[in-house]
Specification:
Helices cover about 85% and strands about 0% of the residues. By secondary structure, the chain is mainly α. Helix 1 runs antiparallel to helix 2. The chain starts with a helix and ends with a helix.
């Protein structure tokens, strides 16, 4: 079964699709990070909210460096909610 051409092709296609999706997710994280940092520059937030957003940014950068694009995106979504940006 593992030697059949169809199985090998299916495994290759599955692996390739995951490989192509990861860079797109990583680019989305980078783009969102830029949006959040730009919004912080002009944001009028309470000190506690600004500290929260800064913490989210640092956490997102750490997750991005670790290759956790989904975690980075989730963390930046929290920062965007505090900043009230899309």
């Amino acid at each position: 079964m593992f030697g059949s051409r169809k199985f090998v092709a299916a495994v290759f296609i599955a692996a390739a699709s995951f490989g192509f999706a990861a860079p797109a997710y990583a680019d989305e994280c980078s783009d969102n990070l830029v949006k959040v940092e730009e919004a912080v520059a002009s944001a009028q937030l309470a000190e506690a909210d600004m500290a929260s957003v800064q913490g989210f940014i640092e956490d997102a950068k750490a997750k991005q460096a670790a290759g956790d694009a989904a975690g980075c995106a989730d963390t930046l979504a929290e920062a965007k909610a505090v900043l009230q940006i899309e």
